[in-house]
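FYI - complex with 5-phospho-D-arabinohydroxamic acid, inputs then prediction.
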Amino acid sequence: MPQFYEQPLQPFAISFDFAAATLEPTGPTLERRMSDLEGLFADHEQWRAAAEGDNPVVYSVVSSPVPEADRELPQSITTINPGTVSGEFFMTKGHQHPNAQGEIYLGLTGRGGLLTFDGYDTRFLEINPGTVGYIPPGWAHRSINTGDTPYSFLAVYPGGAGHDYGWVLSHGMGKRVLMADDGSVTLAEY
Ligand code: PAN
Ligand code: ZN
């Protein structure tokens, strides 16, 4: 057995409902409202009006009880509500893992995608139900609901990777994901 700084967890099973996008037992959960997303949408005035108005829940994250600690492998389900801010689809804040390590996403419900940016190139991957997306080490990532129903996905990531949100605020994501006039998904410069 390797040496642990804390008592290791015992093996345990997680009951996972693909359609309802829930897991049990449940660890930490969080909700991000519009007011939590300052500086991320291109149309700052419309963002402010929404944040100071009904301030909708943009997304929520429910985690299993596996801790974010070295050697552990936490999982969480994110659900992003449908909507736009001046045509820019509802999305997660986006982050880099400062201790660069890979991550996988599995699409569960709805329609959406994964925007990745390594500081030079941007790639947009559709991650719909049944699709696994791989995020290599060093690629910042943000998820986007491009549909008109809630979009959910499972994320599995190394517990020691950390989350750096300031990187995305200062570097952006290279592209924005917008709804075109005909409702289709289009990428625009940041
Ligand atoms: C995901 C994200 C989750 C919420 O579990 O943390 O989708 O997005 P933000 O963290 O950008 O608000 C993940 O990538 N974890 O590493
Ligand atoms: Zn991540």
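The pocket of zinc ion (ligand 2) is lined by residues 95, 97, 103, 141, 157 (CB under 6 Å). The two ends are 48 Å apart (CA to CA).
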